[in-house]
Amino acid sequence: MPFYVTTPIYYVNAAPHLGHAYTTIAADVMARHHRQRGEEVFFLTGTDEHGEPVADAAHALGIEPQELADRNAARFRALPPQLGATNDFFIRTTDPQHEACVQEVLSRVRDNGYVYEGTYEGWYCPRCADFKADSEIDEGNRCPIHHIVLTREREDNYFFRLSAFQQPLERLYAEREDFVAPRGRYNEALSFIRSGLRDVPLTRHKLTWGVPVPWDHEHVFYVWFDALLNYYSALSYARPGEDLTDLMWPASYHLIGKDILRFHAVYWPALLMAAGIELPEHVFVHGFLLMEGEKMSKSLGNVLDPFEVIDRYGSDALRFYLLRDVPFGQDGSVSTASFELRYESELANELGNLASRTIGMLNRYRGGEVLGAEIDPSLAEDFYLLPEQVAAHIDRAELTAALEQVWLRVRRLNRYVEEQAPWRIAKEPERAQELDRVLGTLAEGLRTVTVLLWPYLPASAERLLDALGAPDLSLAGAGLQTGRVRRVSAIESLFPKDSPADGS
Ligand SMILES: [Zn+2]
Q1: Per-residue confidence (pLDDT) for residue 499, from 0 to 100
Q2: SS (H, E, C) 375-406
Q3: Who surrounds ion ligand 1 at CB < 5 A?
Q4: Does 128 qualify as catalytic in the annotation?
């Protein structure tokens, strides 16, 4: 089974920030997990580069839109490696292959009878690059997102016959209750559909920064339709000389923020139906990370800047914190103080300590050898079906719940150390076999949680598995099995409490 996950393509008008990092990390966790299952995985991210906001910003700087797009796209292209994220391709909507695909698919939509000429009049937000329905305008004709006064625009456009998809979309939502998740977002999209769909502009007249409409050169495609098609177009040219569309389409998961729900949960499936293209399997909507009234940490000041966290603590710590502290799919507060607390109490004191104790005791009492005894059944019971539980959560994009399952076992292993007190057993030579079993069980338990933590903490997990001499990352090998760890080597502290970059 192939697995195809996407982030939204990021709008090049702003610099990368925590929100972009969040979605990219989440998509990477899913991609890595599915690779552990031995599946063919494709992970796509990229940049959305057309539209009025980019043209306006470039104009204000006295440069061409392409130059601004090039400049900012480079910063977004650098983001995944900074986060330890392993995207398979980085798409830019100014790629000529993407533009050709947009023209081909939208011409097909027109040939299928879903495009007509008309005049649009409405309240328009140039920052959203979107017309607003009367029901969603704030007092004083303001954009509910940008709070700027909207302009009344009237223009001749080609329209997409969205209204024709009212019933097909209602049927889609009835038949596939997991098409949009979490449930609250599904309900929100469905109620928008039920409120009555109106046709929407497909093109913009007299704008030039966009994909040209092949049948009318005075128009470019509306930036949203151009952007949405990235998920489909990328597969046709991501791998030179190969078209991955048949292999990877439909997408397994589109991860999005709640602000772009309507485009992905309503316009996108309608557009695909109009073009005769299969629909994606899931649209998963994550919440917003809020930084209101946040508490300040000693080392990071008062703003949780992802790049500062990475500089001081490494990308694993950021990945862990964001998926651990805020349940994925819900809004939640983040702060430098809660980051520091998680780092110290969980990464350093729980996982870091478990690793250094286990490896330390094996070195001290057994010269680093694991003497192939069986797993302690009292512990094996607590690990029963753990990889399957984790996989089931990740199948539903419940990334925080999956991590919690693993973390409960990290804590279980620490309790096991306390219960068994190997340092006491070691004082009684006649209990040598018992000590072998406790140490072997610990080594194997540590290996298991580390394999399962790899999607979240890839760099640390790889270091740790290396020290355990057991580099296999496959999910199939993630259950407790004796004999996987034979010999351990020393390891430097995984999560130093005084972060190495902290000179103070
Ligand atoms: Zn707006």
Answers
A1: 53
A2: CCHHHHHHHCCHHHHHHHHHHCCCHHHHHHHH
A3: 125, 127-128, 143, 145-146
A4: yes
